[in-house]
Design goal:
71% of the residues lie in helices and 0% in strands. It is mainly alpha-helical. It is a multi-pass membrane protein.
Length: 285
């Protein structure tokens, strides 16, 4: 099913754009539907079923258990700022996807193939960023890379609505998306490492679940708000508004955690340093 869904996602827009140009949107949508049907048939052939998980403990602390992840994030001065930053950034990125499609395909008149290439090719930059992230951490330290990478990934989306409907404009979009994904590729593994180190062991699953649930709530809200803005003012203006919101999230980042001059912290050192930031309650009930 995941392989079928990726045909609609960012990573496979190159193939999707080329298929739409070659076969048309109806045939491409039909091929995508067939892929989902084949995935379902293959799943139906699985004869061995997993056992049901054990039922949850429905004691008097069930509400506290459900909110433990959010409370742990709120008690951590760095995690709560990263939490707010990541929610807004993720919402803006998801909301920008349909706006970029409208801008490129309708307003600027690019072909589906050009759209697929413009948003598909830069994905390699994200992979490259994740590969070079360990070397950058070794040189600069985890916290510096976390803050600079988080700020840098918010700078590029504002270039896209400024692009004209020319080959130069297409190059602007490709360049901006490449830079954004490169910065995000560096930030994401660093952020995942930091969150794991800064979270008490008993709260890892709950913090991750709270993060995921919050993202699922924030992203549809951002999509709806961006859609209303695009309907009222146009896709270009809505994208500029998202770019402005992203710039404000740079201020939310935990800049007070910037290490002092000459102190280069690696991931292991940062883990030891963050003992002072952990929530006081390490034993969830």
């Amino acid at each position: 099913m995941r392989g079928g869904r990726r045909a609609d996602g960012r990573d496979d827009r190159v193939v999707g754009g080329l298929l739409v140009s070659a076969l048309g949107p109806l045939a491409t949508a039909g091929a995508d539907a067939v892929s989902f049907a084949v995935s379902g048939l293959l799943l139906a052939r699985i004869r061995r079923h997993e056992p049901l998980p054990a039922g949850p403990d429905r004691g008097r602390h069930s509400v506290a258990e459900m909110t433990a992840g959010w409370r742990h994030i709120a008690a951590h001065p760095v995690l709560r700022r990263l939490f707010a930053h990541s929610l807004i950034f993720g919402g803006c990125m998801v909301a920008s996807t349909p706006l970029i499609a409208v801008l490129m395909l309708r307003d600027l008149g690019f072909s589906p193939a050009a759209y697929g290439l413009a948003l598909g090719l830069p994905c390699t930059a994200g992979v490259l960023g994740s590969l070079v992230a360990p070397r950058i951490i070794a040189r600069a330290g985890l916290m510096r890379v976390l803050l600079i990478g988080g700020a840098a990934r918010c700078l590029w989306i504002g270039i896209i609505p400024l692009a004209p409907g020319t080959p130069a404009g297409l190059a602007m979009i490709v360049g901006a998306d490449t830079a954004l994904l490169m910065c995000a590729g560096v930030f994401n593994p660093v952020f995942a490492t930091y969150r794991m180190q800064a979270t008490a062991d008993g709260y890892l699953a709950r913090v991750a679940a709270a993060w995921a649930v919050s993202g699922k709530i924030a992203q549809p809200a951002m999509i709806a708000a961006a859609g209303l803005a695009a309907a009222a003012f146009g896709a270009r203006t809505a994208l500029l508004a998202l770019a402005a919101v992203l710039l404000t999230t740079i201020v939310i980042l935990p800049w007070r955690a910037w290490p002092p001059p000459g102190n280069r912290l690696t991931s292991a050192d940062e883990s030891h340093r963050e003992e002072t930031f952990r929530a006081p309650d390490r034993n969830p009930r």
